[in-house]
Specification:
By secondary structure, the chain is α/β, with parallel strands linked by helices. The protein is 18% helix and 31% strand. Strands 1, 12, 15 and 16 form a 4-stranded mixed β-sheet that branches.
Length: 272
């Protein structure tokens, strides 16, 4: 099949333009101020009435900072890109129940999102939504390798517990503007693929928005776009401010000593 000269020029132009077209960009950032985030199920476990949590004696070889109980942010800290208009639900979303936890402890979804719960344990689970919210997930035993499908009836926060596993406590938040979610790695770094446009980044923990919103504008290029500012998931540490004040006082004392050295000695009084 022969192409006319005009058609050849058009095809050639498409071949030159197509490789430079960017459908989206990867935003790279860091979430900070996560020191106060902890799932309340651990507080419940410390209660003497629960009889299901034992604290061991601290080891001298383990640093003090490492003994602090912290959240598992790769499952618990949900970072959400919010759009200005209602977002569309994802084609498929699976939440795994395994080891007495859910694969996402806090998850933010758009309206109309269908969610499939899958039991990957060798024991039964009976997850359900807490409270009397209309359209919640009713109690029902989920055998190993079995699944349950549930679609939240509308916007709001839905808390989940397991009648057969008290260590399970998680949340699903239905937010109409939830376009995409991502979970950070242990040090707080995260990346999120987004189409060019304007967004608002927000962190969710224990089913609630935490910290501060971060406005975001994604441009067609470059392919990777680092964030200038971190996403704050909570307030700044008070100790940091105290340390800053201590450092300022130390600097002032050093400056005073330098000034004293520079000043000439005061002459003694005549006579005696």
């Amino acid at each position: 099949m022969k192409l006319t000269r005009k058609a050849t020029i058009v095809v050639g132009a498409l071949c030159l333009v197509a490789p430079t077209v960017v459908l989206g960009a990867t935003v790279k950032g860091k979430v900070v101020n996560t020191h106060d985030l902890l799932n309340p199920v651990w507080t419940e476990a410390k209660s003497p009435q629960s009889h299901r949590y034992t604290f061991r004696e601290p080891s001298s070889s383990v640093p003090t900072d490492s003994r602090i109980l912290r959240g598992h942010f790769s499952k618990e800290l949900c970072l959400v890109a919010l759009t200005e208009i209602p977002a569309k639900p994802r084609p498929k979303l699976t939440v795994v129940v395994e080891g007495g936890r859910t694969s996402y402890v806090t998850l933010v979804v758009a309206v109309g999102q269908e969610i499939t719960f899958e039991n990957h344990d060798l024991t039964d689970h009976a997850i359900y939504t807490v409270g009397d919210q209309p359209g919640g997930l009713s109690k029902g035993v989920m055998k190993p390798n079995a699944s349950r499908i549930w679609t939240p009836p509308g916007p709001g926060k839905y808390e989940f517990r397991d009648e057969l596993s008290p260590s399970l406590r998680s949340w699903i938040v239905v937010e109409p503007r939830a376009h995409k979610v991502k979970f950070p790695i242990r040090n707080g770094d995260f990346d999120m693929a987004l189409d060019p446009g304007t967004y608002t980044l927000r962190a969710y923990y224990n089913g609630e928005p935490v910290g501060e919103e971060l406005p975001l504008e994604v441009k067609p290029l470059p392919a990777e776009q680092p964030l200038k500012d971190p996403l704050k998931a909570g307030p700044d540490k008070k100790n940091d401010k105290k340390d800053d004040k201590k450092d300022d006082k130390k600097d002032d004392k050093k400056d005073d000593k330098k000034d004293d050295k520079k000043q000439p000695p005061t002459p003694g009084k005549p006579g005696g």
